[in-house]
Amino acid sequence: MSRRLKSWFIALVFAVTPLAATAENSDAVTGDKATDMVVDLVVVRPLGLAATVIGTVMTVVALPFTLPSGSVESSARELIVRPAEYTFNRPLGEFHRCGADRHPCGMSDR
Predict the structure, then answer these.
(1) What are the backbone angles phi and psi of residue 28, rounded to the nearest 5°?
(2) pTM beyond 0.85, yes or no
(3) Counting Cβ atoms within 10 Å, is residue 93 exposed (0-12), middle (13-18) or buried (19+)?
(4) Which residue ranges make up each domain of the chain?
(5) Closest Cα to residue 28, out of 99, 19, 78, 50?
(6) At 71, phi and psi to the nearest 5?
(7) pLDDT by residue (tens digit) across 35-68?
């Protein structure tokens, strides 16, 4: 990876981190629902898709370690299911409620 691409990636991570922290505290990240929807569609959903794909790869790589310990299900839930739920099972612009029953994201299994 080139140095410039790494710099852009790091800048993107630092730019998105405050949005994620703010999403935990209020209904609207930016104060405007339309802007929240655009940020969700352009930034958060693609990052969620990337997290789901990376989590899938990591789960497969971890299989030699999780199979003997019997923790395949819990590792798959944390690395695949939770990011997928956040990415695909959440209304556009809502950052902290998922599913038809609008439970807190990542809490459906608990």
Answers:
(1) -115, 130
(2) no
(3) buried
(4) 3-104
(5) 19
(6) -110, 25
(7) 889 999 999 999 999 999 999 999 999 999 999 9
